[in-house]
Amino acid sequence: MSKKITILDSEQMQQRTIRIAYQILEDSMDEKELVFAAIAERGYVFASRIIEELAKISKQKVDLIKITLDKESTYLQADTDKDVALAKNKVVVLVDDVLNSGRTLAYGLGVFLNVPLKKMRIAVMIDRSHHSYPVESDFAGLKLSTVLNEHVSVVFSDDKNKDGAYLI
C-alpha cells in the first residue's frame, strides 16, 4: 500500500498562487494585456486562480485560453476554446499543475508555434525536475526532487480549503 504525503496544504497553495501572481506582474509590468494559456483541466483551474489574484493587484487585461491535449498521442493533437491568434504580439503565460517530463507543456508550447509572441512564460504549481524535454518553469510554486516512480497529485477543489499537493 502506498502512502500519501502532503507536500503543500491549501494555505501553502494559496500563498504560492499569490506569489506567482506577483512574479508574473513584475515580469510583465509594462504590458497592458496578458494571455494565459492553460492545460485542461487542473492547469485551467490554477490559471483561473492566478488571474483572480492578478486582478487584485493589477489593471492588466487578461485573456484565458483553455488547451485540451491528447496526452497519449505521439504527435501534437490539441484543441483550444479560443483562437490562439489573440495571443499575437503579446506575453503568454502557459500554465499547468505539474511539470514532470515537460512533454505536456512542450505540446502546449506547440499550439503557439505559428503565432508571433512577445514572450512565453511557464507557470506550474509543482516542478518535479525530471525534464526529458527542454522545458523549464519560469514561475513555480515548489521545485521538488522526487524519484521517478513517485507520483505528484495536485488537487484543486471548489472549496479552496480542500486544495492540496501530494506525493504518492
Explained architecture:
This protein has a single domain (24-167), classed as Rossmann fold (3-Layer(aba) Sandwich). The protein is 25% helix and 32% strand. It is α/β, with parallel strands linked by helices and 168 residues long. Strands 4-3-2-5-6-7 form a six-stranded mixed beta sheet, with helices on both faces. The model has no long low-confidence stretch (mean pLDDT 94). GO terms for molecular function: glycosyltransferase activity.
List the helices and strands and how they pair.
Layout: E1 5-8, H1 10-27, E2 33-39, H2 42-57, E3 61-69, E4 78-80, E5 91-99, H3 103-110, E6 119-127, E7 139-143, E8 152-155, E9 164-167
Parallel strand pairs: 2-3, 2-5, 5-6, 6-7
Antiparallel strand pairs: 1-9, 3-4, 8-9
Helix pairs in contact: 1-2
